[in-house]
Design brief:
single chain; 349 residues; alpha+beta; five-stranded antiparallel β-sheet; 21 strands
Length: 349
C-alpha cells in the first residue's frame, strides 16, 4: 500500500490544504494564498533571521566597517589604500607608524631576511618607515586591492618597466619630493620616512578599500590552545606571544620585542601564518643575491591565530585580481577578530 507523504508542519499564516507545499504558492494548480497580516509577519521574521545570520560573519564593505579590519570607520576619514614597503633588519628598528597599519604583510627577501609591506587606510600616522625598495612579488600581492598607492624607495632597473605597467599609483621619493624625509639619528639606507597623507594626495584616484576575502566575527569553534607561534626564515624569525590582558598577539623580531618609536609594543588580535611557495625570481640584488619570489596566487595551508588559539585553515586565491579566503576543513570561512591583521608569508613546509 502506497502511503501518502506527509507534507510536514505548515508555517504560520499558510492557508492551503495539508497536502500542498508553501513552496508552490502562486504557481499553477494547487496555488493557495498566505493569510494577510500573518503572512507578512512571517516574512518579517524570516528577514530578521537572515539578517542576524549574516551579522555572525561580517565582510567586506559591511556598512560603516573596514573590509581590512572589520572595525567601524568614519567614512569621512577613511582614505584611499596606501601600501608602504618597510625595512625590517636590525638597524631599521624600532619602526615608525606600523602600529596604525590595517594590514601588515611579512615576506622573505634576499639573504633569507624579511621585509614588510604595510597597508593603510582607516588610520594614517604622520610618518611611516624606514622605507625600502619594492620587489616583483609585491605587484602580485597588491593586485587584490585594485589600484592602490605604493610608497617605496627604489626598484631594480630591470623591474622598473614591470612596476610602471602595474595597476597601481607609485609614489617613490622622485615623485613626492619633500613628502619623504631622512632621520638624523640612524644611517642610510635605514632612515627614510614617508608622509602617508602627502603620498595619498599625490596618488590621485588610488583605490578605496574593498573586499579582499577576509571575514570578521565571533571565534570559530574548535582550534588548539596556543601561547606562542614562531615563523622562521633562513636569516630571520618572528614570534607571536598571546597576551590575554591585551587581547592580542605581541610581536617579537629576531628574539627582541618589536616596538615602534615611542616604545609601544607591536601586536594584533589576528595573525595569519600563510604557507606559500617561495622560489627564485629572475632578479638579483646589488650584491648578486637572488631575489625570492613569493607566490600568493593559488592555494595552500595556513594557521589563523586569534584569542590564544590556533585554527588550521586552507587559503585560496584563484587570481591576482581576487582576494584571499581562509577556510576550515568544512569549507567555511574562518572569522578573524576585529582589528589589525598580520599576515606572515611563510615558506611552505
Amino acid at each position: 500500500m502506497t502511503r501518502k507523504r506527509d507534507a510536514g508542519p505548515r508555517p504560520v499564516g499558510w492557508a492551503g490544504r495539508p497536502g500542498d507545499s508553501p513552496l508552490r504558492a502562486g504557481r499553477g494548480r494547487g496555488h493557495r494564498r498566505w493569510s494577510g497580516a500573518r503572512g507578512l509577519a512571517l516574512c518579517g521574521v524570516v528577514l530578521a533571521l537572515l539578517a542576524t545570520a549574516c551579522q555572525g560573519e561580517e565582510s567586506q564593505g559591511a556598512a560603516g566597517r573596514s573590509p581590512f579590519t572589520g572595525k567601524r570607520v568614519d567614512p569621512e576619514r577613511e582614505t584611499g589604500v596606501l601600501a608602504v614597503k618597510v625595512d625590517n633588519v636590525g638597524p631599521a628598528r624600532p619602526h615608525t607608524g606600523l602600529e596604525r597599519a590595517d594590514l601588515v604583510y611579512v615576506e622573505q627577501v634576499e639573504s633569507g631576511l624579511s621585509r614588510i609591506l604595510a597597508v593603510f587606510s582607516s588610520r594614517l600616522p604622520e610618518r611611516v618607515g624606514p622605507v625600502r625598495s619594492a620587489r616583483e612579488s609585491d605587484l602580485e600581492l597588491l593586485r587584490q586591492f585594485g589600484d592602490p598607492a605604493l610608497a617605496y624607495s627604489g626598484v631594480q632597473s630591470k623591474l622598473r618597466p614591470t612596476l610602471e605597467r602595474a595597476p597601481l599609483h607609485p609614489v617613490p621619493p622622485g615623485q613626492l619630493g619633500d613628502g619623504y624625509s631622512r632621520a638624523a639619528d640612524r644611517p642610510a639606507p635605514h632612515n627614510l620616512y614617508v608622509d602617508p597623507s602627502r603620498a595619498l594626495r599625490a596618488a590621485t584616484g588610488a583605490a578605496t578599500p574593498r573586499d579582499i576575502g577576509f571575514r570578521f566575527g565571533a571565534p570559530p569553534e574548535g582550534g588548539e590552545r596556543l601561547a606562542q607561534q614562531t615563523v622562521r626564515y633562513p636569516a630571520a624569525r618572528l614570534t607571536f606571544d598571546w597576551s590575554r590582558s591585551e587581547d592580542r598577539w605581541l610581536v617579537s623580531m629576531d628574539g627582541d620585542p618589536a616596538r615602534v618609536r615611542g616604545g609601544d609594543r607591536l601586536g594584533a588580535p589576528t595573525v595569519v601564518v600563510q604557507y606559500v611557495t617561495i622560489r627564485p625570481s629572475r632578479f638579483r640584488d646589488s650584491s648578486g643575491s637572488v631575489t625570492p619570489y613569493t607566490e600568493t596566487v593559488g592555494s595552500g595551508t595556513a594557521k589563523v591565530l586569534r584569542g590564544g588559539r590556533s585554527y588550521a585553515a586552507e587559503w585560496r586565491r584563484p587570481s591576482a585580481e581576487s582576494g584571499t579566503t581562509f577556510q576550515d576543513a568544512d569549507g567555511e570561512r574562518l572569522a578573524f577578530a576585529r582589528g589589525p591583521v598580520w599576515i606572515v608569508l611563510a615558506p611552505a613546509p
